[in-house]
Each structure stands twice: as C-alpha cells, then as structure tokens.
Amino acid sequence: MNHLSALGEDEWQLPPHAHVIVHEAPDRNELLTIYDCGAAQKPPSAQVIGNLVRVDADHELLSQPTGYIAKLREPAKLERQDDTHWVIRAREE
User: What is the dihedral of CA 80, 19, 44, 79, to 10 degrees?
Assistant: First the structure.
C-alpha cells in the first residue's frame, strides 16, 4: 500500500503534518506506517518495511511501547537509501 506522491525514483512526498509510526520488531526490522495527520480518521497513506535511519525534518518524537512516532512539523519527503533503510528529509516547497 503506497498512496504517496512520487518525487523521484526513490523519493516520496509526505503529507505536511504526517505522523510516521515506527513499530520495532525483535529481528531489528521496522514497520513504518505513514498517516496524513494524527487527527485524521482514515487509513494510512503508506506502509514500508525497513529501518528509519534518521529524520532530518523538523519533528517531535514520542516513545511508544512498541516503537515511536515521528510527528512531522514541516514539508518532508521519504527517501529510500537501499532495500532496508529509509530517511525522512525536509522538502523545499
């Protein structure tokens, strides 16, 4: 499932106030679930498996029992580094 707009070959536009929920697994893999907004009552925009290496965009991190939530505070994009690594970077409008 991926309903994010592509910006390039390995880049996708994230919604302006996206919440990225990272579920950590015992095997060190992660499931990233991307929601348009924390208050939106709709299904996620995308889910990817891999590791979120870092978040370079303005954000707030909230710890959860099974991982954490990155609440984005500026326009950002999701970049694939390789098959299992992801980075969120600020995006110029």
Answer: -10
- Which structural domain, as residue segments, surrounds residue 47? 5-90
Render pLDDT for 21-63 as a digit per residue (tens, 0 to 9): 999 888 888 999 999 987 778 899 999 999 999 999 999 999 9
For the sheet with 67-72, list strands across it: 5-8, 11-14, 76-80, 85-90, 46-55, 30-35, 19-24, 67-72, 59-64
Query: Residue 71: pLDDT above 70?
Result: yes
pLDDT tier for residue 16 given thresholds of 50, 70 and 90:
confident
Residue 12 token pair: 């996708």
Tokens of 88: 């969120």
